[in-house]
Design a protein that fits this description.
By secondary structure, the chain is of the alpha/beta class. The protein has two domains: about 55 residues; about 100 residues, Glutaredoxin. It is built from seven helices and five strands, in the order H-H-H-E-H-E-H-E-H-E-E-H. The chain has a five-stranded mixed beta sheet with strand order 1-3-2-4-5. Helix 1 runs antiparallel to helix 2. It is globular. The N terminus is likely disordered.
Length: about 170
């Protein structure tokens, strides 16, 4: 868009300056100004390159993950080098909602080595049995083989979850 505006400014100034001149001098001036347009466009592109490089590294790319159980199960190997914590929660649970809202509004606060997997307490009965989860708002840290490493309840921030890791 900046290129189009620059071109319009040049074209407008060309028209304004050529109004009082003869056709020959107007033609010469327009050729010299048109020759300058590509140079100015190139300068703009060069100036924008560093900005594009900065946008590639965003804070969220440095943070951990907050994913669904389905995503975790479909790509477990992607999270093998991460601390994985299953977050058993229910939509009707008020403390679970506080934790979900807090984590979701602060995704960049999840440490880079932490993956929080959201597990529906009501529908994932087999997982609850496997890890002995008897109340919602329970966190279970597991290793890459799915073995329980730690279990606790009550964390409401990514920092608090990270503090409970073994």
């Amino acid at each position: 868009m900046t290129k189009h505006i620059g071109f319009l400014v040049i074209a407008t100034s060309l028209l304004l300056t050529s109004c009082g001149q003869s056709a020959d001098s107007s033609s010469e001036q327009s050729q010299s100004m048109v020759a300058e347009v590509p140079q100015k466009s190139q300068e703009v592109e060069v100036a924008k390159e560093p900005v594009a490089e900065k946008k590639e590294v965003e804070p969220e790319s440095m943070s951990g993950s907050y994913i669904t159980l389905a995503k975790f199960e479909s790509a477990k190997s992607e999270y093998a080098n991460s601390d994985v914590v299953l977050f058993f929660n229910a939509s009707w649970c008020s403390t679970c909602k506080v934790a979900r809202d807090n984590i979701e509004s602060n995704l960049s606060a999840i440490p880079a080595n932490l993956t929080i997997v959201v597990v529906d307490y009501d529908s994932e009965i087999e997982l609850r049995r496997k890890y002995g989860v008897v109340i919602q708002h329970t966190f279970v840290q597991i290793n890459s083989s799915g073995q329980e490493l730690a279990k606790w309840s009550g964390s409401v921030t990514a920092k608090a979850i990270a503090e409970n890791l073994v």
